[in-house]
Structures are given as structure tokens and as C-alpha cells.
Task: structure prediction
Amino acid sequence: MARAYNFSPGPAALPEAVLRQAQAEMLEFGDAGASIVELSHRGPEFLEVARQTEADLRTLLAIPDDYAVVFTAGGATTIQALLPLNFAAPGQAVDYVLTGHWGKTAWKQARPVADARIAATSEAGGFRDLPPRAEWTLSPDAAYVHVTANETIHGVEFRDIPDVGDVPLIADFSSSIASEPLDISRFGAIYAGAQKNLGPVGIAVLIVRRDLLARSGQPRAPIFDYRAQLEAESMLNTPPSWNWYMLGLTVRWMLGQGGVAAFAERNARKAALLYAAIDESGGFYRNDVAPAARSRMNVPFFLHDEALNEAFLADARAAGLVSLKGHRVLGGMRASIYNAMPEAGVQALADFMRDFQGRHG
Ligand SMILES: Cc1ncc(COP(=O)(O)O)c(C=O)c1O
Result:
């Protein structure tokens, strides 16, 4: 069976080498006599997986020592809900910059427990651009400012880290973590669900400056308390050990490929290829995002004639290109081209698009 080029937004394509290693270790992990997913998370095998994974992630992302790493179930959405509980006092202002669906989701998660303000939004323009920094209304008393580094559905990405002064900046990097070098010291915290660029669904990562953990936050159960989670080394309850192990394999694969600097170059080339196929199509294909804000990871595009959508998807599938259907919020198409998508996959898609246009243009 041939594996297709899979453009799924998440859960997304994993490196084949990672899948093969997981397959080889599925029945027996090392000489443990059992799979890693069958062993206690408190046993020596899993504790070593967890230790190595954090060490590798720290190397990959150049995480400064004064930042803690929490591995957690519940996805990025749960982190969004826990941010104000952990880092804002009851009733304190928190500022959200909305540049797409996920920024809005984050803001909604905060609303029940904080004075969640919209500092800026590009919703009126259909989330096709970033609101200019000069037009943000930031609250001096805010506990933090939240941005979405890359909007997975709308295909809008911050290309520079916005300056928000002394208020900690918290960013959702779910769909762009590890895609290029990042100065984490510019953030109070960053977080990501793993299922796009870090591994499988079922685990998420929060990287947080330790001084933020000293904040008392709001009344919450220990399981929702990142301090308690860290004291328990992210094992306050049974962690998603299989997902954690898979994340570790994926991170090690990225290190072996040359790390984030190597992926930054590849990702820039991949994005350029795909946007060229769209922009040079003379309107047959269209991406509506302002060029300076275009995502390198998620490329939504539309056919000039929507009646061709089904044929496009069916022909793409036949050509070994899958998961190109756009999100229901936008319609059209979307190609997600995370680190595990090889340049050959994007080239194949660009070639297919030109061929399809030749037959239907
Ligand atoms: C940018 C971004 N933030 C948050 C989420 C929600 O993540 P989860 O499903 O892990 O809660 C997603 C999911 O696609 C996303 O793309």
C-alpha cells in the first residue's frame, strides 16, 4: 500500500520514520517485555522516555532554563481554559488579539473566569489580515496578552513577535511550533497541541516562564493547577503515555533532520511553491490572505468555480494527495504543510494543481 501525501490540518501527517519506529517497538519496548503503553508511567522505562523527551524538546526549541515545560492531556483548548485560572486574578483583565477562529476560541475559553477583552480583531475583514499593532487597545492592568501565532483555519500567521511592553505575551503555537527558530524569552508562555507539528493528538505542551507560576491565579482544583502539575512532573494523574512517547520520537526525528533552522528553510520553500501555484494561476485558484500575513503552515485556497471542488478533491485523491478539503468555516481547499510534509509532497500538489487547471481552465 502506498502512503499518500497527507495535507490534513491535524491530526496531521507524521514522519514515516517515526511511524516505523513506533511500529517496531509496538509489541516490545526495548527489553521491557511489553509495549511502552502497557507499562506504568512511574516505571523506569516511561520515566526515561519522559526525561529524554523534555531534554530533546528543550534542545529543539532552545527553551531557556527559566521556562518550565508541562506535558498535558486535553489539547490546546484545555490550556486555553486554564490560562486565566492560573495566570489571572479573579476579575482581572486579560487581552486577546483575534486573528482567526482559534484566537476567538481562546477568548471564549477565558470569558467565564476573567475580564476577557478583545484588544484587536480582524474579524470584520474576514480574518484575512493581522490587525496593525498600532491599533491594538491593550489594558495596562492585563494579566497577559494572548495571540495566535498561526491561525490553522484562516491561514494567517504573525511573522514578527508583537511588542506588548511589560505585560506577558502568551501565544498559541499549535500549528507552527518548531517550524522555525523562535526567541521564547520574548513570551510569558507558549503552548501547542501536538497533533500538527509535534506528534500525535492526545498531548499538548505548555512552555511557561517560571515567574508566572508564582501567580496565585484563581481557585482551582489541583489537576487544573500548572504548579501542581509541574511538581508532579506532569504526572499528577496517569498521563497520555503513548502520545508522550510518540511526541518524543517526533522531536528526535526533527533534531536528526537538522532542527528548526533546517525546517525553517524547507518550510519557506514549500510555502513559496504552493503560493506560486495559486498566484500564478491567473485567478483559477485564489488565496485571500494579505501576502505579508500568509501562513507558511496552512494554505487555504479556493477554486474560481466552486462547482469544480468535488472533481478537484477526487482527482487529487487519485493522484495520491489527500485531506485537501477546506474547513467548514471557510469552505474551499486547505493544504497543511507542517514539518513532516516533504518538499516532494508540496511539489506534487503544485504540479497537480497546474495539471487540473490545464484540464478545467
Ligand atoms: C491554532 C489552534 N489552536 C487550538 C486548537 C485546538 O486544539 P485542540 O483540538 O488540541 O484542543 C487548534 C486545533 O486545530 C489550533 O489549530
Remarks:
- Residues 10, 75-77, 102, 148, 152, 172, 174-175, 193, 204 surround pyridoxal-5'-phosphate (CB under 6 Å).
